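Q: Give me the 3D complex with C2E.
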Amino acid sequence: MFWGGLSRGFISLSPMLGWGADELLQPDERARQIQLASGIGAAVALPFVIRNGFISPLPVVAAVELATVLLLLLPAFLLAHRRRFLTLAESLVLLAGYVIFGVLLIFRGVQGTGMFWALLFPFLCFFLKGQLMGWLYSLGFIGFASIYLFFLRFHLGIGFDYSQTYAIHYLELLCGFTVVAAGFNLLRTRFEERLQVRVAEETAVAKSYLTQIQYQASHDVLTGLPNRIELVHRLSQQMANAGGAGLVVCNLHVRRLHELSNILGHLGGDQLVLSIAEKLAASIGSQGILARTRRDEFVVICPLEPQGPEALALRRQIEQRQFGVEVQGYTLYVEFSVGVSRYPGHSTDASTLLKQAEQAMLQARKSDLPWLLYDPAQEQAFQRHHLLFSLMCEALAKEEFDIHLQPQVDLVSGRWIGAEALCRWHHPAEGHIPPGVFIPIAEESGLVDPLTDWLMDRCVRELRQWRAMGLELGLSINVSALTLLSPNFSDKIRACIERHGVPAQSITLELTESCFMNSLDRSLLVMHHLRSVGFRFSVDDFGTGFSSLSYLKHLPIQELKIDRAFVHKLLAQPGDQAIVTSTIGLAHQLGLTVVAEGIEDAASAAWLAARGCDAGQGYWFARPMPTTDFVQMAMAQRAEAVSSVSAV
Ligand code: C2E
Ligand code: MG
Ligand code: MG
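A: Here is the predicted complex, encoded as structure tokens.
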């Protein structure tokens, strides 16, 4: 019972005594402690050397104190400064403590400040050597003091003359201070331990967050596939490991994903993407890399083995361009547009290869092809495209655009009845850029709307001037499909004619068949609205759009313009003659006037007039010209007509 209680007490006391509580200080911290202790020790000891040596002459004490500073504290300080032999340095400091406090005890008496310093010694032991060694050094000093006080002092009479009561009080205090120092040091080390554990826990949490963030930054959240950033990294690695073997980089654009996701809802759309990712992953095999780089874009990288199983499966899929995916009980057919680039043939840089595959994919989409291999010549076209786009933005701001007018002529009387406004762009450095080049770029980039706004304003101003001069000519303006469907188009052109006081009847809007192919209903809505205001409509480039003739009867149009492809070799091509003749007949039966464009010779003009074509346009009559020239010629022509009428 007693022994059990004793052992339990001992166990609960054991950390206090030092088991398991030794500090594991970093070398830097240990060195700093040694420097601090030896520095303070030397600073305190040196004044005593002077006092004991010169003021109250105790030469032996002064000599021992000086020797302690020079032989123990100074070397300890230097060793700590150089971060060498730290254990030895700590022992030197404690040995110095033994010597100084021993001398103090034997020769000087531990009264007054001496007593105070000697009681601090256990703290020094625990601070420097940790819990276990701190106890050993402190107990050693207690042992030394006991031996001196009770044996050497009282029995042999060596040293300072203490009273027995004083000696006992001193030893009691020394023991008490040792326990306090041990407890204090224990608290200190425990606190540090807890701090270290806490820091380790917090660091682990921060690390796991960091890992999560790194994962999210490099992977697609939905599929868990690598994203573009990670793909560049992996592709670089794959190229480094390829050892000269080739790789194929395929950029797969999932067609109509947006529409399908809309139909399926948010969750269904996600499911669809996951199923596509699964199918693709299954088809590329272990050697390939699959990544999701955009919402509707995947990238597949495979070794370039033309007959290898992965390449074959991939090629088959590319060729088929579609596969069935089960979502919400439906089988949906997913189609891809694929762009392919090759390593090392096209580039040896990962980002460039990805960009090239993407460019090829965009080109495939544009040309409505299932897949396309990257073509370096295309790169130049792309760059030119981007250059022209940025130049166009500037050109709009600087008003570098202009209009040229090409007359439309009554094929029977030869009179000018109107004109077509054709946009012209003369860039100061690039020179003349034809509309066939910049209009498609403007349409793709959305710049066609501001361009049409500017052009419309310019044309309506022109019409106002003509009317002021007595020129009663109509003006045809080309309107692209996108502009017709842009939200404020009809409001804007109404506002424009009202601003300038020009009747809508003098403006014909030329639309191509592409306007009706994609969104017939919306186009009809806008056209009916504009027609009710008085604008005329003409179908431009008629016959080239592959669209059905049935739309003609639904459209509020007044004119058909036969494309110049059927006109410019009219007399040599019986097929063109048949098409033109039947188009004229069809148009007249529907109550439409017919304009033939691209007339380059008198014989074609006569042939068309004989077949009942109402009007013509082409180099034979006049090329497109600046507005001032047009006005001059139109005025001259009118004067001629007036004089011939008065002559009659
Ligand atoms: P388009 O509307 O069919 O214009 C007729 C094109 O035929 C004009 O080419 C004109 O210069 C050309 N042309 C006229 N007579 C002849 C001829 O006898 N022989 C030959 N070989 N060509 C003739 P341009 O000015 O180069 O315009 C090309 C196309 O660019 C236009 O075809 C039109 O679709 C588009 N475009 C021009 N200006 C504008 C515009 O302001 N807005 C929009 N959206 N498109 C425009
Ligand atoms: Mg036209
Ligand atoms: Mg045309």
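A quick observation: The mean pLDDT is 86.
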